[in-house]
Amino acid sequence: xxxxxxxxxxxxxxxxxxxxxxxxxxxxxxxxxxxxxxxxxxxxxxxxxxxxxxxxxxxxxxxxxxxxxxxxxxxxxxxxxxxxxxxxxxxxxxxxxxxxxxxxxxxxxxxxxxxxxxxxxxxxxxxxxxxxxxxxxxxxxxxxxxxxxxxxxxxxxxxxxxxxxxxxxxxxxxxxxxxxxxxxxxxxxxxxxxxxxxxxxxxxxxxxxxxxxxxxxxxxxxxxxxxxxxxxxxxxxxxxxxxxxxxxxxxxxxxxxxxxxxxxxxxxxxxxxxxxxxxxxxxxxxxxxxxxxxxxxxxxxxxxxxxxxxxxxxxxxxxxxxxxxxxxxxxxxxxxxxxxxxxxxxxxxxxxxxxxxxxxxxxxxxxxxxxxxxxxxx
Length: 378
Hints:
By secondary structure, the chain is an alpha/beta fold. The chain has helices spanning 46-52, 61-66, 70-75, 79-83, 95-100, 127-137, 155-179, 206-219, 235-245, 263-272, 281-287, 319-323, 326-335, 338-366; strands spanning 4-10, 16-21, 26-29, 31-36, 56-59, 88-91, 105-107, 112-115, 122-125, 141-143, 195-200, 223-226, 255-257, 276-279, 290-293, 296-299.
């Protein structure tokens, strides 16, 4: 497998058609990455994800650290082998989950002490420990340990959060570079390596965002993420941050916006030049009966669908829309059948992945130039 990040074509809007070669798979971008929090994209088997065209999924460092434990996963050959996933994988750093435990954590310069949401036990995450856990899990891409800024946040709070994030980024990178060869699959792929992405923070203050991006670029990460979005801020502000940061990131490395978004948002961001996105929304909404369709959002629990024999989305060719009716999906929700979560999730993921497929195709046709880089050794 060839290595690197290769920009194939770039559109006038800034969107780019590219491919990212990783140890376990070459991923076509822009890409939407389904979230597999605890070693599973909730309610969806791995073979179904593959049939939908998912090339890369996420694993959650915090949850996998708590159970079954990163050392257990290392002993079993890494997360790919443990969950029987053949594609690429990215693990987050655990920083966002620790951020969400506002009442159960204490942040210091050294790291974050927090209590498990499972049993209240005490744990301490440092940038070095986050790297050790992610190396043990063995994802293709690991993320630097960061401190996520809530919204709204006063400038002093955002500045302090940025100070921590930058210090932790350097520590993450130094420790990662010293130990990245310890991934469980290194003997299987001796000429490939795990990658590490830095995370731009700074709250909603554009000068802090610029400072964060510029300092991270100086550190020379394998790729760059924009974090701290979708934390309650209005959508125009999300877009403003993305538009401010993207031009500051290297054109020869992948650019990832974390935790977004609705279907129209991921399309908009991809056309601006975002290469990678993830969000729990398609599967979380599905479990509550909300379907994303070409005709808009459908709350399948509504009574109007009780005898509706039309497919969930007449314009969709996914395995759910080819076979099942709105009436049946509503019945499954009303009956509390687990199959409801599976079928709804499969459709929503197919819809999200289909959007990215169409964007990739249109970027390939509308592009005005081409670039080729090898910035992310695999």
